[in-house]
Specification:
about 525 residues, alpha+beta, 16 helices, 16 strands, about 25% helix, about 15% strand, disordered N terminus
Length: about 525
Amino acid sequence: MPDINLRFNDVATLWYGVKIMRGNFIILISILLPVLVGWRDQIHAAVPVPATEMTAETPGRVHVPGCRGCHGDVELDNSHDMACTACHLGNNEATEKKNAHTGLLAAPAAPANMAASCGSCHPEQISGCSQSLHYTIKKAINRTRSHFGIEPPLKGLTQLPDNRRPQSRTELVDDMLRRRCLRCHVYTAGDRYPYVKRGIGCAACHLQYIDGKLTAHTFVSPTERQCLSCHYANHVGSDFIGSYEHDFNWEYRTPYTTREPFIRPYGVELHQLASDIHRQRGLTCLDCHSGKEMSGKKRAVHCEDCHLPDPASHPLPDNLRRQGNQLILRGTDGKDHPIPRLTHPAHAEYKDRVSCQVCHAQWAFNDRSTHLLLSYGEDVDAWDRLTVQSSSEVETFLEHNLYSDEDELEPTMLDSITGRSKPGIWFLGFTQRRWEDILIGRDDQGMIRVFRPILDLRISAVDGDGEPLFDNVRGTGNGLLPYTPHTTGPAGLFYEKRFLHLLQADQNKTETGPEKDLPLQ
């Protein structure tokens, strides 16, 4: 074997000479390069190339055929330990990339492919999933469109009308839904944040991504991480872990950051508030929300499904069992969790009039009003203090046009359903972001519940010169909707103070719901 150490010393000596004899730099480099080349060739000649690293393009060398010849590090679970071509198609006998990838299906779990790929083994799950609210998002779509007087209701996400440049109030609302609001669904891989980016279709819930990268090709039951890749940004789910987004304005976000790159796993810094007591006890999303519920085959879970006054007289969820006069929940963590019974007299007194979270919610989302602006202009100086937007696409546009010396970017934004770029970019802001006041009122059945101003929306649009195209478009009513904050905890001593004023007069019983001016606390 050549004396590699000697040659390294020669190189080191020559480099030292370069530092001293700057005037002779060119001469020394001309001497140095042949030495480096010869050293490199001798090292490579001394180290044999493993057979699995040989390629078909290397004459006289054998390449291992099939997908595993190149993708040997892919980890599969026992249920999916099969040929890659069973899902991804392509040619598993080829020895060259071009031939191996002929007819390749890169994303077999995508909505367009999942029936033929995943559905070949899991037809029942695919059928149920395609009708679930998680897949269609029709509830969120139709509530928003109805709030702005847009009918008829749609059956799902893909029915949302697609227009390149909104010309009417209806088109403006639909464009807002397609490009700004509904960015967390199975047709998209999520935003470009470390804890948000994920797979599409079935892979959105059943494959594991960490820091935006697929960690293993092992299909798993969804974990909290998968759930929060969509249920973040001050929506139900992020409250379960006690997270509340800071204001977008730079001076209201702490700790203060510089212009240097700063990682925000969910896009915005977070206040760490009290997490839900179920999480504190070790439970996760799937301990309450089963796959049957997600696929629409079972009604949504309610508190009283588990917290019963008399366990002996009620049917139980699959993960509960009776143990004497005690209910035990078998958690996804493999542990047994005793379920408290409803023994306090308030449960019997108010159960048909007051929802559980009116007393037991520790805090609730109260972001009002939400302002959305569609802009076709490149001038973004007014947004200098609001570059954090809970959208990496918008943030990239703002950061570039505010601080880069390169040509300004065109104001464009991707359609989250088709993936195509369209003119105009959607900015977001709030009048205030608070959690200290829990809003209490009556829903349209007369039940006293917690509300949030989720549809308290103000939508505007300006052209390239900043002239208004639509100004402060609003829907009907006050935009308040009932919801169930996932911030459960013990009811305090003064729990009745939250709702007793709503039980006093008969006229309260005739309230028609949140579309009226509710007597909110």
